[in-house]
Amino acid sequence: MSRLLLISNSTSHGEGYLDHCIGEMLSFLGPIREVCFVPFAVYDRESYGESARRRFAAEGIEVRVLTTDRVGGEVLEETPAVFAGGGNTFRLLKTLQDSGFQGVLRRRTLEGMPYMGASAGSNIAAPTIRTTNDMPIVQPASFDSLDLLPFQINPHYLDPDPVSQHMGETREQRLVEYLEENDRVVVGLREGAWIRVEGDEAGLGGRNGARILRRDTEPEERPPGASLTDLL
Fold this sequence. Notes:
By secondary structure, the protein is α/β, with parallel strands linked by helices. It has one domain (about 5-150, about 190-210, about 225-230): Rossmann fold. The protein is built from seven helices and eleven strands. The protein has helices at about 20-30, 45-55, 70-80, 90-100, 100-110, 120-125, 170-180, and strands spanning about 5, 35-40, 60-65, 80-85, 115-120, 150-155, 185-190, 195-200, 200-205, 210-215, 220. It has a seven-stranded mixed beta sheet, with helices on both faces. It has a four-stranded mixed beta sheet with strand order 6-7-10-11. The longest helix is centred in the first third of the chain and has 13 residues, at about 45-55.
């Protein structure tokens, strides 16, 4: 029975790293005081890992940073919870695939290990990474990701600016293009929002709501506190 906390962003304007969501993360973890941090979405994994260590240490939680070697595999098997940080989704998924950890992470989460992700770390909880905002700076073997949910996620979802003179596609237009080719629900998760899944129930938390997009259907708004259980 999966337990997931999928956060749109790890830093909000005017706040420090994870400040806007740390309370929810602590609630989600409960008595757990050790977390495996997955730093693969950024280039400088060592500095990223140190940032995570400092932030969680302030809450009394020990962080073990995942590496791609045999020791990393032991950490992933032993640690009672995981947090996959943000960055570039293509790089994160490719590293998980190349290290052989994609299947391990999926198996452990489906066995009940609490999984937390932010931005790219939330993207990979979906069936594929096809609705990421990131540039494909590397090429993973497949776009298929952890498949912990039946719907797609688009973190950092942005509403159109009515006074903008930018002539490119809006975020919604790009997600509609996805739906033209793929018949799967997309949850556009705004900044400051998160999805929490506890077994067969899911809810929307945080400061902002989400935009639900389906093929050949008008988009739907859901506010903070709304249920997402019908999407599971």
